[in-house]
# Entry
Amino acid sequence: MNRLFISLMILSLIPGVVLAQESKVDLGISVSDGKLRGFYLAVSDYYGISGRAVVATKERYRLRDEELPVVYFLSARARVAPSVLIGLRIKGLSWLDVTFHYGLTPEIFYVPVTVKKIGPPYGKAYGHFKKYRTKKEWKKIVLNDYEVADLVNLRFISEHYKIKPEAVIKMRSQGKNFITINEENRKGKAKAKGKHGKDKKVKADKKKVKRK
# Structure
């Protein structure tokens, strides 16, 4: 998928500063829930959409939070404005109906994984892809709105945080929603950056000592 990445903030190497900077990003309205704020910012960063636009879309159309990535994913694939897609949803079309409407197939939702046995909530969706052996047959696959959202968010989270899809699948199997999964990976990423920054400083200090 052609994505335009737009940086919303300059990430510090220290976790505490990273989280503090994120909390100051203006989303246009008050989002007091830190986890939700982090999710909206991640969606904004990954899909190259302004934070204000993400929140405005959520508020105006009363979408489930997990549907926001679906809107922007399909918008990029179908090359149409998010509002157009949502308009079709309001008319009663499912996300899969919208997909077919623009000449796309369920193939776009498939995320390759190495595990063979997958439980809920992904088991049924991956069972469909396994049933139809060739990609040409994947147009026969029927996915409900929740399965589409699960697959799109799987791609979004794993690619945004550069982690294996299997890790996200495991977290979902534990009953965690994508807001929580995003938050845990966001903090993990900030912590890793902080550690990397400290390690670099230690190495630099050691070099200075050797020179003396």
Notes: The first helix runs from residue 15 to 24. The chain is about 60% helix and 0% strand.
